[in-house]
């Protein structure tokens, strides 16, 4: 399998005219605002899959516990999939530990939840700058800046994730139980939705399904707050079955699928009548008995012709219990986890040897997600060579990962307005790459995780590839400045974190950067290309001489510039490789 092939072909689209990018809900800061001005059609690369691969099984590996070598490569692969851009110290610490110990850390949530987002705008006069707005009354005049604060705060949590899987799983559940925060017109409800996802990130998916059903953001987003006896709204009931739990299965008749029918959607909608969102302080939801359909709801043979009798404000829980009794619900959720963490292609072998056994674990563990993740991440299948470096990074993985891997220094919390401003800038960068945190394009989530046959290849197209190059060029070069604070890659500081012998040897130096930034090995020609970027036409010893001269006189402008420009040129060449877009 040539994991480079797609991106190598697709590099030609750099010369294709770049379309304008879609408008973003909420304000952007700095140059990102200039990149987001119009609403274009969605762009799909001409090189993306036209059909899924067929024929022989892609792999033969199973969930048998991994018993191979544990070192830097394996630790880096695990952390690249579980974190947004692991740092070199994080990879080294994991490599020096054991797979079991590293998984124990990844699969443990922090003891305390993060502090809520705060006001950083003079527009919101309800609270001083630096204090949270989440407990204030709703005010349409402040909604825009509060929504921006929420989205930027969320980016800050991703950036400061530590070595736990919580943030990657919070985003997974956001892409699964989708709410478009810009569409609910109450940032406080958006925050409560985010808090709920984070609370259950490594918890019980069945309980999460129950809680998200009546969380105010979801009630508002999918019109559950309008669903009453005599006029049940089918939106949430339909998405609950189709996208959040059991999935469609093959079509067996007009509007009827293997796993549910139109009659089941209608019955589910009746179950869910009577709930309203509550826009008080704090936000919440409530049940009104007079708005609820009290008939007995009868489901199709797909659910064993089960009935749900009227049971007031707990009836929705009976619906979730019924849905989670279906084995296809566990399989549907596991398939989405697989595409998120491993690869998009689920062939017969993967379905038989990976998906179904993991679904059995999910069921046997009462829908706690950690045992499933532990079994997957500790398997020979996860560490199969074909599953390393085979995913294209999402815009969040690409942008946040760049900042984390390169250990870019951000403003501290003591300078909260500038700190949020920098997070806002990163949100602007991911937006022009076609991923907006808090606002997937629709209730199905980001197309890269479900749209067959392209899947993650949708992340790279004539719009986004040049944008990615702009991001790396910016951070390698002058960086971004706001309120007198600059964020950029400090190539000298980063290189000095390497062992002294590595930093002073051009070959070892390049190898160290490649090992940190790329998931698969480069060819000899590619390594030579990077060396040419570092030392154009010069012998190897020239780097050693110049580096030692810089260390001896770090304040000498000429000596500092000599090594800085060489390192920047090498990093620019490295980040321009197709492999840099892979995880």
From TrEMBL:
Protein's name according to its UniProt entry: Uncharacterized protein (DUF1800 family)
């Amino acid at each position: 399998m040539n994991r480079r092939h797609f991106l190598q072909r697709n590099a030609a689209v750099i010369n294709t005219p770049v379309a304008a990018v879609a408008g973003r809900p909420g304000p952007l800061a700095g140059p990102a605002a200039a990149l987001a001005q119009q609403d274009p059609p969605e762009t799909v690369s001409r090189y993306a899959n036209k059909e899924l691969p067929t024929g022989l099984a892609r792999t033969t590996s199973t969930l048998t516990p991994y018993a191979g070598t544990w070192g830097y490569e394996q630790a880096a692969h695990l952390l690249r999939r579980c974190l947004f851009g692991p740092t070199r110290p994080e990879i080294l610490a994991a490599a020096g530990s054991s797979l079991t110990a590293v998984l124990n850390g990844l699969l443990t949530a922090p003891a305390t939840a993060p502090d809520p987002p705060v006001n950083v705008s003079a527009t919101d006069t309800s609270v001083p700058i630096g204090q949270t707005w989440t407990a204030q009354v709703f005010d349409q005049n402040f909604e825009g800046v509060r929504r921006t604060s929420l989205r930027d705060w969320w980016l800050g949590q991703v950036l400061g994730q530590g070595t736990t899987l919580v943030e990657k799983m919070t985003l997974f559940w956001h892409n699964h139980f989708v709410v478009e925060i810009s569409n609910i017109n109450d940032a406080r409800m958006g925050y409560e939705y985010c808090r709920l996802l984070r609370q259950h990130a490594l918890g019980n998916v069945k309980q999460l399904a129950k809680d998200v059903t009546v969380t105010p953001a979801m009630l508002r987003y999918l019109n559950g707050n309008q669903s009453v006896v005599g006029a049940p709204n089918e939106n949430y009931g339909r998405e609950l079955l189709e996208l959040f739990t059991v999935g469609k299965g093959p079509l067996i008749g007009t509007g009827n699928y293997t796993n549910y029918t139109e009659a089941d959607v209608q019955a589910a909608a009746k179950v869910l009548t009577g709930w309203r969102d509550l826009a008080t302080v704090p936000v919440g939801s409530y049940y009104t008995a007079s708005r609820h359909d009290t008939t007995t709801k009868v489901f199709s043979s797909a659910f064993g012709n089960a009935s749900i009798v009227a049971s007031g404000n707990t009836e929705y829980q009976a619906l979730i219990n019924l849905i989670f009794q279906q084995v296809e619900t566990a399989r549907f959720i596991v398939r989405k986890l697989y595409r998120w963490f491993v690869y998009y292609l689920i062939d017969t072998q993967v379905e038989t040897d990976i998906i179904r056994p993991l679904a059995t674990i999910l069921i046997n563990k009462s829908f706690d997600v950690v045992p499933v993740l532990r079994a997957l991440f500790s398997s020979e299948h996860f560490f199969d060579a074909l599953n390393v470096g085979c995913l294209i990074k999402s815009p969040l993985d690409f942008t946040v990962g760049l900042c984390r891997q390169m250990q870019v220094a951000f403003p501290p919390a003591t300078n909260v307005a500038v700190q949020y401003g920098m997070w806002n800038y990163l949100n602007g960068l991911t937006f022009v790459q076609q991923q907006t945190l808090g606002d997937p394009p629709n209730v199905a989530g980001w197309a890269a995780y479900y749209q067959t046959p392209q899947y993650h290849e949708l992340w790279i197209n004539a719009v986004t590839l040049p944008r990615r190059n702009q991001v790396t060029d910016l951070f390698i070069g002058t960086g971004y400045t706001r309120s007198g604070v600059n964020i950029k890659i400090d190539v000298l500081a980063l290189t000095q974190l390497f062992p002294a012998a590595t930093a002073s040897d051009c070959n070892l130096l390049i190898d160290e950067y490649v090992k940190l930034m790329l998931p698969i090995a480069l060819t000899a020609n590619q390594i030579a290309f990077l060396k040419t970027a570092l030392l154009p036409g010069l012998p190897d010893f020239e780097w050693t001489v110049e580096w030692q001269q810089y260390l001896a006189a770090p304040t000498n402008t000429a000596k500092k510039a000599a090594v800085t420009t060489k390192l920047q040129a090498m990093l620019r060449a490295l980040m321009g490789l197709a492999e840099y877009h892979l995880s």
